[in-house]
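2024-03-11 09:14:02 INFO worker-7 job=invfold-0412 stage=load source=structure_tokens
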């Protein structure tokens, strides 16, 4: 059964710097900002753009999952929109037959960005786990904190 969940948050950083982190540097920055969730990440196929595959090895706070391969299935620079589909491990090992996360960034002001996160998944479960949305929000919060603590913005 196909399910969809949505969440959103406001990041107190500009859209351009957040977009760069999310669309270009995600695999290298996440282990720095949320090492308890993501131990390491690397692009294992492609150049980091559309169609590329990223391998994330999870940290100690992620129970029941060791790693997850995600493919960039949607990438629109002009709309600040990126979609990542799990193609191996992770959520697929937990009973999901399809799992995709879509991030949409929208400018609120020069130093604020609205982040909409949409999950599309197929599972026999009747309810999506609350950790699904919590993980993506932790990711965005980690990127925000990283940008605020560096000269990257």
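2024-03-11 09:14:09 INFO worker-7 stage=emit residues=153
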């Amino acid at each position: 059964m196909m399910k969809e969940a949505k969440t959103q948050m406001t990041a107190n950083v500009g859209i351009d710097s957040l977009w760069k982190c999310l669309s270009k540097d995600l695999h290298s920055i996440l282990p720095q900002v949320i090492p308890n969730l993501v131990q390491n990440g690397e692009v294992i196929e492609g150049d980091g753009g559309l169609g590329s595959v990223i391998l994330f090895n999870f940290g100690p706070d992620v129970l029941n999952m060791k790693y997850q391969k995600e493919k960039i299935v949607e990438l629109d620079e002009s709309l600040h929109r990126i979609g990542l589909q799990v193609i191996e491990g992770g959520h697929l090992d937990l009973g999901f037959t399809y799992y995709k996360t879509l991030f949409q960034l929208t400018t609120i002001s020069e130093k604020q960005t609205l982040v909409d996160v949409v999950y599309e998944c197929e599972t026999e479960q009747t309810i999506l786990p609350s950790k699904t949305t919590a993980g993506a929000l932790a990711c965005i919060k980690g990127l925000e904190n990283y940008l605020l603590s560096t000269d990257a913005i």
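2024-03-11 09:14:09 INFO worker-7 stage=report msg="The first strand starts at residue 2 and ends at 11."
2024-03-11 09:14:10 INFO worker-7 job finished
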